[in-house]
Design a protein that fits this description.
This is Glycosyl transferase. It is a single chain. The protein has 16 helices and 14 strands. With 415 residues, the chain is an alpha/beta fold. It folds into two domains: 220 residues, Rossmann fold; 189 residues, Glycogen Phosphorylase B (Rossmann fold). Helix 1 links the parallel strand 1 and strand 2. Helix 2 runs parallel beside helix 4, helix 3 crosses helix 4 and helix 9 packs across helix 14. The protein is globular.
Length: 415
């Protein structure tokens, strides 16, 4: 099949997040399908921005559309979204003529790309797929306090209802969304759950050496007999890193070193906290390239991931970094209250209440005081769980099977 994948924020291993579209598309190419990825040439989540124009990456045909740069979640980002959607709309006929897509996927986190995807799918007679990363507008309402009557929230709600009504297939990364989507008009027979995952070959080859500054700090911690607790990923409010720093303050007399690797909207403020509060056992480093992530995680005794306590997580969670932690065989400390918990499901670590520095500190201390062999057993349980349920070859086939069923239904009705 010819697959047109509209993902504003799509990346690649060389560019940075988002990785999921790349990994799914790469699997489809390996299966013999043709994939065109249409993305913006600027995204706040990428480590490096691509050149505007066309590029072929591992068999995937990328089209990078020119969009304005922005910072934060204000008007600049809205302009960036508008520029992307407007250009895809304008290119509809050209995209159809170039590829003749059988499947059109709207997958840009925000739901407004459903209108441009629907236009292309209807013109091409293609299967229309709506891929749900987060529930918009519910996510900005419940996570950021946006009013449901805010014009942007109302626009998202309109797009969301359009998507559930008109898409032939809805793919959700979140596992507990059936009732919510049905309340917004979705026929749940269209729904398939495809969570985030990992690419097995990323973990089979010798990993890239860890950057020297990070490796040197870990070596110093080891020489002091410290347990190393790590975090790798985005530094935004949803990542709840303030509570980790609060827990580190409670544990400042314990032989524990914290290593934070990443960037994001909250990074400067968080790093300032380290200085202001003299959290001298907590260390921040700039993001490391994805090929070095396995090397970094291999150095950890415990990997941390946390969340805010907000109602939106009742629909489930699907964090990329948790899949990496578990695949690396790390014992995980998970501060969460959600509709699902892969750490509990897998036995890959310990889960505690979110937004509770004391609970996080107690959990970290419990894992730190475990014999090394017991932490290794937890890590291996997590790895086995990911290998069984969260590898991209498995997930890509599940995603495509839903598209193929919808396509066969369309062909049957046409006959």
């Amino acid at each position: 099949m010819n697959i047109l994948y509209l993902n504003h924020y799509a990346g690649s291993p060389a560019l940075g997040m988002e990785y999921r579209p790349y990994y799914l598309a790469r699997e489809w190419v390996r299966m013999g399908h043709a994939v065109r990825m249409v993305a913006a040439d600027f995204s706040h989540v990428r480590a490096r921005q691509p050149q505007t124009g066309r590029e072929r990456i591992d068999g995937i045909d990328y089209l990078w559309l020119p969009t304005p740069r922005y910072q934060g979640n204000g008007l600049g980002r809205v302009r960036n979204i508008w520029a992307y959607c407007r250009q895809v709309w304008a290119r509809a006929d050209a995209l159809i003529a170039e590829q003749r897509p059988d499947v059109v996927i709207a997958s840009s986190t925000y739901p407004m790309d459903i209108w441009v995807a629907r236009r292309i799918a209807r013109k091409a007679g293609a299967v229309l797929v709506f891929e749900v990363h987060d529930l918009w507008p519910l996510s900005p309402i419940e996570l950021s306090g946006m009013s449901p009557n805010h014009p942007f929230a109302r626009l998202c709600a309109w797009a969301e209802k359009t998507a559930y009504r008109d898409a032939d297939v809805v793919i959700s990364m979140l596992p507990k969304v059936q009732d919510y989507m049905a309340s917004r008009g979705l026929d749940v027979r269209k729904l398939t759950i495809v969570p985030n995952g990992i690419a097995p070959e990323d973990w089979q080859n010798e990993p890239a050496p860890l950057r020297q500054d990070v490796a040197a700090l870990v070596a110093v911690a080891r020489a002091r007999g410290h347990v190393v607790v790590g975090y790798a990923g985005s530094m935004g409010l949803p990542n709840a890193l303030d509570h980790l720093l609060d827990a580190a303050a409670l544990l400042r007399q314990q032989p524990i070193t914290f290593v934070l690797v990443g960037d994001g909207h909250e990074r400067r403020r968080l790093v300032q906290r380290l200085q202001d509060e003299q959290l001298d056992r907590v260390h921040w480093f700039a993001p490391i390239p994805k090929p070095q992530i396995p090397s970094f995680l291999a150095e950890l005794d415990v990997a941390y991931i946390g969340w805010q306590r907000v109602p939106i997580y009742r629909f489930g969670i699907a964090p990329n970094k948790l899949m990496d932690y578990m695949m690396a065989g790390c014992a995980v400390l998970h501060a969460v209250e959600a509709g699902n918990d892969p750490v509990v499901e897998s036995g890959g670590g310990l889960s505690v209440a979110p937004e509770s520095p004391q609970a996080i500190a107690d959990g970290l201390l419990l894992l730190a005081e475990m014999p090394h062999a017991e932490r290794e057993q937890l890590g291996q349980a997590g790895r086995q769980f990911v290998e069984a349920h969260h590898t991209y070859p498995v997930l890509a086939r599940r995603f495509l099977a839903a598209c193929q069923r919808a396509r066969e239904g369309m062909m049957h009705r046409a006959a």
